[in-house]
Design brief:
By secondary structure, the chain is of the alpha/beta class. The protein is built from 8 helices and 11 strands. The protein starts with a helix and ends with a helix. One of its GO terms (biological process) is nucleoside metabolic process.
Amino acid sequence: MAMRWWPVLVAAAMMATAAEGFISAKTWSAVRRANDRGGPFVGLVVPNANEMDPVLNSPSFTPTPTLPSYLDIQGRRFRFGAIGGQNVVMVMTGLSMLNAGLTTQLLLSLFRVKGIVHWGIAGNADEGLQIGDVTIPEHWAHLSLWNWQRYGDGPENELPRSRPPATTPATSASSTSPTKPSRSHCGMELPACVNATTCLPRAPRVTRVRRGCSANVFLDNAAYRQFLRAKFGCTPVEMESAAVALVAHQHAVPFLTIRSLSDLAGGGSSLGNEAGEFLAIAAQNAVDVMLNFVPLLADGGAAHDAVAADM
């Protein structure tokens, strides 16, 4: 009778060993030291190198002497430093919702994180804004969960009905504070010119918007852009933020996205080759606003109030 259970016990032991070994003891030790010496951190989540390299090259991002410069874990590099007195751990996700959600989950599983700031560029669905403007959405929606109509069906053949897409409040886990609202972002001077001859019509500005929309779609279609704007009220459209927001929301970790507009999605503006000419300005503007925002987290509710203030 005992022999019958022996293979089961061996298999269970092997499974336990494999589960415990997916991250080495040496790496876990390094993670614990980082949390003990630097946590809780502000988690910085960035899609790609165009938006991360300006941070690494900025004098505002400084190394933390008691922490390693980085840890490589599960295919992601977690970089440590400080911005305005705040210890931060920064990780690049790569493009797409899957990469963004997976990386954010790994970040929150490993490190003591008190809040997440996510930034980058995005397409623009609001013709009232321009390239270089920096948006801070109040909500994020995950779109493009397709329900395809059967071939040959027409308007009389309705698709199965479902509830409207869920939105995740961008500050759903944040606390409020009675302190006087800070409008520090309003006074920021953001660059408008690539060079002496290539400039935007006006200086970019920071603005709070109602909703950003994410999907595994690089949006380059004017008709679809107009549909998203009319149907869902999207302003920035991109490929990561809703995934970051969902994971942060599930962990009850405060979350904020800063997205700078790099082009009018699908074209149609008067600025010609929009993204090609102004990509660097858009990326730098998102970085500058992030670097200005993170130090506010040292003052309890100041960061929340900075977002809540009309911009």
